[in-house]
Amino acid sequence: MYGAEVWQIPNREINKILSTEMDVLSRSARKSRMERIKNKYIKEIMGVKGKPDIIDIIEQKRLQWYGHVKRMPEGRIPKLIMDWIPCERR
């Protein structure tokens, strides 16, 4: 997931991403929604139970990027942009 460190993901999009992830897992397990199998069982079948979902991975990448930028020297553009505070409102 290239560039996931700087994505701004609204809450409504998080639900769409998680449902798409479960759709991919259930299709990979060859299980239909008509079978009404719970998500936790599909995760067990696919061997991903207990592993982080895609939103957790994105959050981890964002925290890694934040730490990377905070350790940068003061003159670097990403650090300047992260510490920037607008002067006034439009």
Structure in words:
- The protein is mostly helical.
- It has one domain.
- The protein has four helices and no strands.
- α1 (11-28) crosses α2 (39-46).
- The radius of gyration is 19 Å and the shape is elongated.
- The mean pLDDT is 89.
Number of domains: 1
Please tell me what the overall shape is: elongated
Biggest beta sheet attributes: none
The averaged pLDDT comes out at 89
Q: How many distinct beta strands?
A: 0
Give the low-pLDDT segments.
none
Topology order in helix (H) and strand (E) letters: HHHH
Proportion of residues in helical segments: 55-70%
Strand content: under 5%
| Structural class estimated from helices and strands | mainly alpha
- Amino- and carboxy-terminal Cα gap: 34 Å
